[in-house]
Amino acid sequence: MSDFFKSFGYAINGIKQSLSQRNIKIQIVIAVIAIVLGFIFTIRPGEWCIILLCIGMVLSLEITNTALEHLVDLVSPDYNEKAGKIKDLAAGAVLVASIFSAIIGLIIFWKHLLSLL
Questions:
Q1: Catalytic site residue 62?
Q2: Domains of the chain, with CATH numbers?
Q3: Count of alpha carbons within 13 Å of 65, Cβ hemisphere only?
Q4: Is the confidence at residue 1, as pLDDT, over 80?
């Protein structure tokens, strides 16, 4: 059982390490804005689930992207075209998730934002 709890410690350490990255900080700020808007506009439970799923997906992909970048740097410290492609693909996955999450956020919050005008 102690190995089980150790694994949580390792995971928390990984999350802490990711917080030193600029992009994860930007994603967290955007997530906080979405959460605050959710409370302000009292979105429905289903909408909360979608927003939280998007936040979790983008943050998880950002952490995975950072891990892949570190792995590629470890395996290929010198410039390598294939290593660059791996980094670009991982970053692309984060970008795709971020774009679709932003679209989902607009769909959910659009009617509320229009009511302010």
A1: yes
A2: 21-116 (1.10.287.3610)
A3: 24
A4: no
